[in-house]
Design a protein that fits this description.
With about 400 residues, the protein is α/β, with parallel strands linked by helices. Helices cover about 40% and strands about 20% of the residues. The chain has 15 helices and 14 strands. Strand 12 (about 310-315), helix 13 and strand 13 (about 335-340) form a beta-alpha-beta unit. The chain starts with 5 loop residues before the first strand and ends with a strand. The structure holds adenosine-5'-diphosphate and magnesium ion. Magnesium ion (MG) binds near residues 22, 26, 27, 29 and 318.
């Protein structure tokens, strides 16, 4: 069994696990992340980012059907929801535990080798304007089951400080993917699309652009019964409706300045149906195509507005597998290299989970995890609550 700390090529390193399940509700991604002991040094270092951290293992577990259905239900008000949310949290931790076991097994490690798990929890309500964001989670149970310390509830401190509590990944994107001197954009295509924009001297902004897979998945599920539009092939066979696209883009969220964050409270099928009411003759496939174009258009518009000098756009999240969507984006941002985050050493499905491993390390080191310029919080804050091992 590996001891708690050991030396890597750059000096002492620690291992963390990050667990992320986003609004696509597809399941849980987990990574085992190796980080230098001295995070502050690593942050200031101009060493290439890849040498500062390393994903040692990645594991994914899909949600069991009943848990997924229950999580969908819990995103809306409903009967007995406090009890149901707690029961779903306990089930969620069962999935988390399986991911942790798979990660440890892959590297033949015991729990004592890992300093902490950063467990994001499942967002069921995100209402920063009302002062809260709810991630259902059972961190005490996860600590008990795994014997590893758990850091959870990452968003509430930033919201308490007047921020959006989201996105929390931009600081990590900078630490893991940015090269000093370049203007870089990082796009996560999860349920929601979020952009991190880093200028050549390392100034960071970031925000949610709008819907990505949440509507793309929802529409194909409703019409064809598929979990997602594999490769975007259904969308690729349809035509963009310019009139529908114009009406969707009229949503005030898209024009609002950052800081801003959103979720399925706003961008859901009911939102789409309201706009579709005046486009009743459109066939479902053309709607799918228009939804893919909407995601690409909002990202392109945001990039042009906030970091026009960017020449590289790194794409991560499951939507990076949607070739049609990525192709649409490429067309709308000529002059920008649209590339997978893999080109910087971190495959798309690992980035968000790695971010929460890194954020857990920041918490244990008593270092802030939020970027006030991103979330709008009054200042940097140490995020999360720690459940000791
Ligand atoms: N081969 C694929 N083709 C098209 N879309 C895909 C593919 N693989 C994954 N996706 C999309 O990625 C989503 C999962 O992305 P993920 O980054 O895990 O999102 P979240 O963070 O919201 O869970 C799926 O719901 C699906 O929409
Ligand atoms: Mg996911």
């Amino acid at each position: 069994m590996t001891k708690l700390s050991h030396d890597g090529p750059q000096g002492p390193v620690d291992l963390y696990i990050g667990l992320m399940s986003g609004t696509s509700l597809d399941g849980v991604d987990g990574v085992l992340l190796e980080l230098p002991r001295n995070l502050e040094w690593a942050q200031q270092s101009r060493a290439p980012s890849a040498s500062r951290m390393r994903v040692r293992a990645h594991a994914h577990q899909s949600f069991p059907r009943n848990l997924r259905d229950e999580l969908v239900v819990l995103t809306q008000s409903g009967p007995d929801e406090i009890h149901r949310a707690q029961c779903a949290a306990i089930e969620l931790v069962g999935v988390y535990e399986r991911v942790v076991i798979a990660l440890l097994r892959e590297e033949t490690l015991g729990p004592a080798a890992v300093r902490a798990i950063g467990a994001h929890g499942q967002t069921v309500r995100h209402r920063p304007e009302r002062g809260y964001s709810v991630q259902i989670n059972a961190p005490a149970l996860l600590a008990e089951r795994t014997g590893i310390a758990v850091v959870a509830d990452f968003r509430s401190r930033d919201i308490a400080a007047g921020g959006q509590g989201a996105p929390l990944v931009p600081a990590f994107h900078q630490a893991a993917l940015w090269h000093p001197g370049e203007a870089l954009a990082v796009l996560n295509l999860g349920g929601i699309a979020n952009l991190t924009l880093i200028d050549d001297v390392g100034g960071v902004i970031g925000f949610d652009c709008g819907p990505a897979n949440t509507l793309i998945d929802g529409w194909v599920r409703k019409h064809l019964g598929f979990e997602f539009d594999a490769g975007g092939s259904w969308a690729a066979g349809g035509r963009v409706s310019a009139a529908l696209l114009r009406d969707l883009l009229a949503e005030p969220y898209f024009a609002a300045p950052p800081p801003k964050s959103t979720g399925q409270e706003l961008f859901n099928l009911a939102w789409l149906q309201r706009v579709l009411a005046v486009h009743a003759t459109l066939n479902p496939q053309d709607v799918q195509t228009t939804l893919a174009e909407l995601t690409a258009a909002t990202v392109a518009q945001d990039l042009q507005r906030h970091l026009p000098e960017a020449r590289t756009l790194l794409v991560c999240g499951g939507g990076s597998e949607n070739a049609d969507l990525v192709q649409r984006l490429r067309r709308l941002v000529p002059g920008v290299d649209v590339m997978s985050s893999s080109t910087r050493g971190m495959p798309p499905q690992q980035v968000e989970a790695a971010a929460f491993a890194w954020l857990a390390a920041r918490t244990l080191a008593d270092l802030p995890g939020n970027v006030p310029a991103v979330t709008g919080a009054a200042g940097p804050r140490v995020l999360g609550a720690v459940y000791a091992s």
